[in-house]
Sequence to fold (126 residues):
Amino acid sequence: MTEDQNDILGKFKFEKLIIWQKAMDFGERINKITDAFPDKEKFNLSSQIRRASDSVALNISEGSIGQSNPEQKKFIGYSIRSLAEVVTCLFKAEKRNYINKSNFIQLYNEAHHLMNMMLAFRKNIK
Fold:
């Protein structure tokens, strides 16, 4: 990233949220791991887990922009539900041998940590 690009980043409230940053990173890891899924899953499990993982960060950002506190809580709730969907997809991927146990455990633990962060964040919205 150029210095000029760095000057324009960070102007949106959500960019400062650790949960958004973690959700962005998590989504990229999910995206990368699904590249190894079989072609037959391109429009099924691979697409579903990618959309759900992207939805986590998307809802965090949407809820943080000009929303009332109840609205922000609602969007964090959507993010939490999307993360639960990702976890279920991870279980399916592991059962179908698309990811190994080590990758499953790593992503599962990361999802659990992110879930706890989002629950704590939502609880602190007054």
User: Anything to note?
Assistant: The mean pLDDT is 93. Helices lie at 3-8, 18-34, 45-64, 69-95, 101-124. The two ends are 36 Å apart (CA to CA). DSSP finds five helices and no strands in the chain.
